[in-house]
Design brief:
Shape: flat
Distance between the termini: 61 Å
Strand order of the largest sheet: 1-2-5
Radius of gyration: 30 Å
Order of helices and strands: HEEEHHHHEEH
Helix content: 55-70%
Number of helices: 6
């Protein structure tokens, strides 16, 4: 291998390195411009979004109060959709709890076969709440698990939940930006 071949190979590699570095500089500049314009747009529009979110929350509270004062309108069917908003009553999720992990673990081991018990327990041997929630109330009571029955809850939910998710994300990002600005001061 001669020295001139190595030099020309290094020159070619250097050429491509320079091309790549220049392309990365253009990319970085464009990304920085996007970030700056996005931040400026967010700063300009976020106060209006927050005001609109507060107004929507106030109106939701008024709607909820009106629904709760007329439960007779939601007996059958229990919900209805008006103007793209599902309203009415739905069964709330019940809750389970227990006082002592060790007692519930022991009761599970006594009550169920080994393979079933393993599906309900972690290796650390503590009850797995999500797995226990699948059991009937009678078995839960036998295990010493308290079952709190669910009560009816008012439901107010936009059929198109994408807007709610987007607003929540924007407000969360705005809160993070404000916290970062406060920390920087």
């Amino acid at each position: 291998m001669n020295n001139s071949t190595n030099v020309s190979s290094i020159e070619v590699i250097d050429y491509y390195c320079r091309q790549y570095a220049e392309a990365r500089e253009v990319l970085a500049a464009r990304v920085m411009k996007l970030e700056a314009e996005t931040a400026a747009l967010r700063n300009r529009l976020l106060p209006g979004i927050k005001a609109a979110a507060a107004a929507a929350a106030d109106r939701q509270a008024l709607l909820s109060a009106e629904i709760s004062s007329h439960p007779d309108l939601f007996t059958k069917p229990r919900t209805m959709t008006l103007r793209g908003i599902k309203i009415g009553y739905q069964k709330g999720k019940g809750k389970i709890s227990w006082d002592d992990d060790d007692k519930v673990v022991a009761a599970i081991r006594r009550t169920f076969a080994l393979d079933k018990a393993d599906a309900l327990l972690r290796i650390k041997e503590e009850p797995i709440k999500a797995a226990l929630e699948q059991l009937p109330a009678a078995e839960l009571k036998r295990l010493g698990v308290h079952v709190v029955e669910a009560s009816d809850q008012i439901v107010i939910k936009a059929i198109d939940g994408d807007v709610d998710k987007l607003v929540a994300r924007i407000l969360k990002e705005g809160a993070v930006d404000e916290a970062e600005e406060s920390a920087a001061k």
